[in-house]
Amino acid sequence: MSVFMRRAKVADLDRIMVLERETFEADAWPEDAMRRELESPHAFYLIAIDDEADDESDGEAAGLLGYAGLLAPKGGGQGDIQTIAVAPAIRGIGLGRGLMHALITEARRRHVAEIFLEVRADNPIARALYESLGFEEIGLRRRYYRGGVDAVHMRLTVPPAVTRPAEADATEAKR
Asked: How far is 84 from 68, CA to CA, in rounded Å?
């Protein structure tokens, strides 16, 4: 498998919706809402693709491994992680973390100081990922999801980009 990320396009909508419905079932976004997100100048959506898969097979989500979206108007100071999904067969390999890092980097480019998200209270794996990235719980939205499941509202204060001198690498290269 060869994985790469790129900006999502409206042409990716069908594949995104297959994974959206598979992942979120009753809470899946309507297709027209997802289309508006992909078309919005204030949104930044990425897809992760298996470059070795045949994208045309059966019109399904072939090759699509995951997607994630950020809504952050430039200069607005705040952003929201709108959605993130990873194909069930490859969960646990770090793709969700990679997508989140890419969204945080884009938020930084847009001069966003804070990023917000909601996560199902009954999803400890996603909550642990977000906490490991520096998100903190700031509230609870009772019965936010279908079936009466609460949403944990979380916030990340976007950390500055970290740069390190290349001295150590240069010293090692000379040896």
From this structure: 4
pTM for the complete prediction?
0.86
- Does 55 map to a domain? yes
Per DSSP, what are the bridge partners of residue 3? 50
In a domain, 80, yes or no: yes
Q: Is 171 helix (H, G, I), strand (E, B) or coil?
A: helix
Residue 116 lies in a domain: yes
- Domain coverage including residue 131: 3-169
Q: Is residue 159 within 8 Å of 134, Cβ to Cβ? A: yes
Mean pLDDT of the chain: 90
Find how far residue 140's CA is from the centre of its chain. Answer: 21
Domain count, the chain: 1
Is 29 domain-assigned?
Answer: yes
Residue 58 has pLDDT above 80, yes or no: no
**Does the pLDDT at position 3 exceed 60?**
yes
Please give the positions annotated as active site.
118, 130
